[in-house]
Amino acid sequence: MCRGSLFHNVGPAAEKALSPLSFFLRRTIQKLSLCSKLCFAIGGAPKEVAASATAFFLQIYLLDVAQINAFQASMVLFIGKAWGAVNDPIVGFFITKSRWTKIGRLMPWMVGCTPFLVVSYIYLWFVPPFISGRFIWYLGFYCLYQTLITCFHVPYSALTMFLSTDQKERDSATAYRMTMEVLGTLVGAAIQGQIVASAHTLKHCSTHNTSASYLGNSTGAEIVKSLKEVYMIAAGVIGGVFVICTLVMFMGVKERDDPYASRTEKQIPFYKGFILVMRHGPYLTLTAAFLFITVAIQLVQSNFVLFCTYAADLRDQFHNIVLTILVSAVISIPLWQWFLQRFGKKTAAFCGITWIMPFTLMLVFIPNVVVAYIVAVSSGLSVAASLLLPWSMLPDVVDDFRLANPDSKGHEAIFYSFYVFFTKFAAGISLGVSTLCLEFAGYDTGACKQPAPVVYTLKLLIGGAPVVFIVTGLMILLFYPISEDIRLRNKVCLEELR
């Protein structure tokens, strides 16, 4: 009765149909301690700390501090993201081939890559003394950083499935993780924003023509030097956070082997597992939906500082507005966790993500400080939902796949790595294209004031384009087939397979 996954219509009454054996197993499921959940969540925070800093500040750093032109910056951002996306399935492949060790199969990846990851991140924010080769410098270190962050993030994401056999425990751990990751995003924006914000003010334009003053000329040489120093300080602080949080996760999290797979010596090859995963309808629907939603969030995130600086005259407020968004997101994570348990994950996705659309448009048309902070609080609700929901729904898809393919073991990394691959690749394309649009609009590197076409382009990238992508993603999500009834049925059937 339990085989075949989605293809049987079983209502919520299936929860009551447990066999005596499955009832006993349900009673003996090992619960996760609060300490384990916190340590697991802390392990994911530094990735978001670094991601927040790069998402909000790398674009303006490349343009106004490293002073490479907008076309080169777009190539760095796109190629780096695309390279990271390509690495996701490759890392996923090698993880499936990894042997079990005393500390698990996934943990060695995360611990081993951390020192190299920190070094590559720091060099990403270093301005080399030469000028002609800076494009190659930043492209090389951004690609290296993307490779190493993939080696950390793919096994960390897959670790969710090896914390507990109980869906509620995994959902709870995911909520802790999302709260800590949003907090990490907040910390990253706070560290980077508060350290570098003072160097991005308009003080250097006060005694010069704002349309002709440049950060890179002799009058701005001291400002450029200050910018270089503060960005390096911020990079060092974030690198230290990465090391500390990884150690906490290593000390406090125990990785468990897969209890659901049949105990057989026959292993399914990677390519066959990949084909099975790519034919799994719920996975394709979920990935496609959040691909478009992720692109929308990425567009807003990557262009927000430029928008505040050049299009909304909020240069002195952008770091506080960013913090307001993220504080709102942190506070609302428990709200969305309660909401998805009460009304279902699909309903939570629709209610949470649609919330951002009217407010981003409002900021574009009414760019003043009061509106900006109102929009920030409201947008934080959607940011929290967009972070929590896909990672809460993906384990349900993996459970559904396990039920349909009970003899397939060790393919969890394929689900997570290719989900990250598709979303990261799409985000890379959108980020590269958006920066290229600024080049075509006439972005003037280092200038205190940008021409009108650049201002219009930034408004489009913050307002109109994200709305289109969000609507597309939500329309695809309508076809996501795992309802609460099916999720509960899958839970019962998997317990019977243990």
UniProtKB/TrEMBL annotation:
Alphabetical UniProt keywords = Cell membrane, Membrane, Transmembrane, Transmembrane helix, Transport
Transmembrane residues, as ranges?
Answer: 106-124, 136-163, 230-253, 283-312, 318-340, 347-366, 413-436, 456-480
Task: Report whether Transmembrane helix shows up as a keyword of the record.
Answer: yes
**A Pfam family the protein falls into:** MFS_2
Localization of this protein: Cell membrane
The record gives the membrane topology as: Multi-pass membrane protein
Which GO cellular component terms, listed alphabetically, does the Swiss-Prot or TrEMBL entry include?
Answer: plasma membrane
**What one GO molecular function would you report for this record?**
symporter activity
> What GO terms in the biological process aspect are recorded for it?
carbohydrate transport
Q: Which residues form a coiled coil?
A: none
The answer, when asked if Transport is one of the entry's keywords, is: yes
Which InterPro entries has this protein been placed in?
A: MFS_2 (IPR039672), MFS_trans_sf (IPR036259)
Principal place of residence: membrane
PANTHER family reported for this sequence? MAJOR FACILITATOR SUPERFAMILY DOMAIN-CONTAINING PROTEIN, SPHINGOSINE-1-PHOSPHATE TRANSPORTER MFSD2B
The record's family statement is: Belongs to the major facilitator superfamily.
Q: What is this protein called?
A: MFSD2 lysolipid transporter B, sphingolipid
Annotated organism of origin: Mastacembelus armatus (zig-zag eel)
